[in-house]
Design a protein that fits this description.
Blueprint lengths: L1 H16 L4 H9 L10 H5 L9 E6 L20 E6 L5 E4 L16 E5 L8 E9 L5 E10 L18 H4 L19
Antiparallel strand pairs: 1-4, 2-3, 2-5, 5-6
Length: 189
């Protein structure tokens, strides 16, 4: 009898280890945190990480053009974003909304804008890049014309004007300003 009682004492806490408050779980999964904002995303994702985490195109969206510290999460625009690739008449040709993996951990990094290469493996052509809020579809940023070709990202040439896959390689605050919310800044959390 003593053994059964001791076994019960040892096993009972294990039954409750997996239990958690659903509200805490939901808020933890929607809170965005730090994930190398402003760095060359493809330098890690397309070299050090597995195929399921490789990125076709990626960057960071900041709240304003005057970023002083990429490590300060208050400067990153929070929320989930869609990247639209527009033709010269500003008609949408490709949208990350059509190629998203809702289970991707990428949405946990504050300011992340990206497309996984497992969802769309190549871009080819000249596009204006539009970043919109996923929930409201309001435009946050709109770029000038960017060129893409079927070549893969090359870590030894991350600033490739013929294939602009790694947004932060160019938009690094030195050569070109960081990508920032040009309008509807109130959407940024």
């Amino acid at each position: 009898m003593k053994r059964l009682y001791l076994l019960w004492l040892l096993l009972t806490p294990l039954l409750f280890v997996g239990c958690s408050d659903t509200q805490d779980e939901e808020s933890a999964s929607t809170t965005q945190g730090w994930h190398f904002q402003g760095r060359d995303c493809l330098a890690c994702h397309n070299y050090d990480l597995g195929a399921d985490k490789k990125l076709l195109v990626a960057g960071t969206l900041f709240k304003s053009s005057s970023v002083t510290d990429v490590n300060d999460l208050n400067e990153s625009c929070g929320g989930e974003f869609i990247i639209n690739f527009l033709d010269s008449s500003y008609a949408k040709q490709i949208s990350s909304r059509d190629y998203e993996d809702i289970n991707s951990d990428g949405y946990k990094g504050k300011g992340n804008i990206f497309m996984l290469s497992k969802m769309l493996d190549t871009l080819n052509g000249n596009y204006f890049i539009q970043i919109v809020d996923k929930d409201t579809n309001n435009t946050l940023a709109l770029s000038l014309n960017h060129s893409f070709n079927t070549s893969e990202y090359n870590i030894s040439n991350p600033v490739n004007y013929g294939n602009r896959l790694s947004c932060n390689a160019c938009h690094n605050g030195d050569t070109v300003s960081y990508i920032y919310a040009q309008s509807n800044q109130d959407i940024c959390e």
